Amino acid sequence: MHRRGVGAGAIAKKKLAEAKYKERGNVLAEDQIVQMSKQLETFKSHLEEFASKHKQEIRKNPQFRVQFQEMCATIGVDPLASGKGFWSEMLGVGDFYYELGVQIVEVCLALKHRNGGLMTLDELHQRVLKGRGKFAQDVSQDDLLRALKKLKVMGSGFGMIPVGGSYLVQSVPAELNMDHTVVLQLAEKKGFVTVSEIRESLKWEKERACHVLDHLLKEGLAWLDAQAEGDAHYWLPALFSELSSRDITPEEENQMTP
Amino acid sequence: MSFEWPWQYSFPPFFTLQPNVDTRQKQLAAWCSLALSYCRHHRLYTLDVMEAQESPVFNNKKIERKLSMEAIQVVFEELRKKGNLEWLDKNKSRCLVMWRRPEEWGKLIYQWVSKNGMNNSVFTLYELSNGDDTQGEDFHGLEEWMLLRSLQALQTDGKAEIISMDDGKGVKFF
């Protein structure tokens, strides 16, 4: 028998075999693609079905919204990631949070003169609900936090400072570093803080404490109370809980001044 | 109707003159509004500075805070600059408080006159401020010095003329 191992024929045979394998590979990939497309189609139609069934629910029910968001997170989808796109168009979720963001900005602007741009999440929640009126969709604190995250991403000077189990919402880009934040957290309990308290709780030097308090005064976030017993008290309007008290409105002022 | 205090009134630092300039501006604006509002509610036309210190406006006993004499003077100076206050003496111990300007009072009075078809009528000052006809009007009970200024404003506008009568002054409306 002739030995044809490495002859022209062998190469040709090898080439043919390779070609067949390649074809097979392509066929395999094609198969997979067709399979995946089918799956995606099914998936998409399920989603559309889900969306149309639950669109109202998502807009009306804060708890449902939370669960929906968590479900999306599990599968690695952020419904708020982009203004346009399947999710926001299909479900209108983007609109909902965008409008909420606008409301949040309005509330914060309206109160900035009073609290220097710092407000508890609780107060923000109450005021947003009030502004929406009786017949509007309900809004939860979770919704506010998500809308705030969006605002933050858009670089509008918004921030959230964790205090006492909740948050302080910062709507003015005052420069607050770790030292300031820590003092804010300390002030949260009583609505005010003193130099002695800071020194005692945080073990700081007097100068460091004074420096932080001066900064808070300068940013309009704190007011000085010199009539307190002992140390001067530094109060934060943001933490002052007399929400039901009215403000002197600019309209009234105009009525009274020349 | 009882007087509604603004949120600042229960806020202890409100009674300390703020060191930060911007905050102080806000504080003084709020104090001016509060003082005028309070005077308007209680129909106060004059204030005595010593008495003011003990008045509930500047002294919140509930939170044990009150404006110092120095701070009260600062607030009063702000009101004076805005045209809502006039000192009655050099020592600055008593002042007139104008929570409504004479021009505004004049307008109200003239509106009442026109509404009742009383143009070309003559009134004594007393009739205007204390007459039965003006019962229930905002300007009823208006103190004479303010009434006179209001009528002077109308006079300047050509809407009235102040005349001298047997036992005092009167006014004719056009």
UniProtKB/TrEMBL annotation, chain A:
Quaternary assembly: Component of the endosomal sorting complex required for transport II (ESCRT-II).
Protein name: Vacuolar-sorting protein SNF8
Pfam families associated with the record: EAP30
Superkingdom of origin: Eukaryota
Family: Belongs to the SNF8 family.
Record bears the keyword Coiled coil: yes
Keyword terms, alphabetized: Coiled coil, Cytoplasm, Protein transport, Transport
Protein's cellular compartments: Cytoplasm
Gene name of this polypeptide: snf8
GO cellular component, one term: ESCRT II complex
Any GO BP: protein transport to vacuole involved in ubiquitin-dependent protein catabolic process via the multivesicular body sorting pathway
UniProtKB/TrEMBL annotation, chain B:
GO CC, alphabetical: ESCRT II complex
Biological processes, Gene Ontology terms: macroautophagy; protein transport to vacuole involved in ubiquitin-dependent protein catabolic process via the multivesicular body sorting pathway
Coiled-coil regions listed: none
A Pfam family the protein falls into: ESCRT-II
Signal peptide range in chain numbering: none
Subcellular location per the Swiss-Prot or TrEMBL entry: Cytoplasm
Keyword Cytoplasm found: yes
Keywords, alphabetical: Cytoplasm, Protein transport, Transport
UniProt keyword DNA-binding, yes or no: no
Main location, first listed in the record: cytoplasm
UniProt-listed InterPro entries: ESCRT-II_cplx_Vps25-sub, ESCRT-II_cplx_Vps25-sub_N, WH-like_DNA-bd_sf, WH_DNA-bd_sf
GO molecular function: protein homodimerization activity; structural molecule activity
Protein family (similarity comment): Belongs to the VPS25 family.
PANTHER family, per database record: VACUOLAR PROTEIN SORTING-ASSOCIATED PROTEIN VPS25 (PTHR13149), VACUOLAR PROTEIN-SORTING-ASSOCIATED PROTEIN 25 (PTHR13149:SF0)
Protein's name according to its UniProt entry: Vacuolar protein-sorting-associated protein 25
Species annotation: Gouania willdenowi
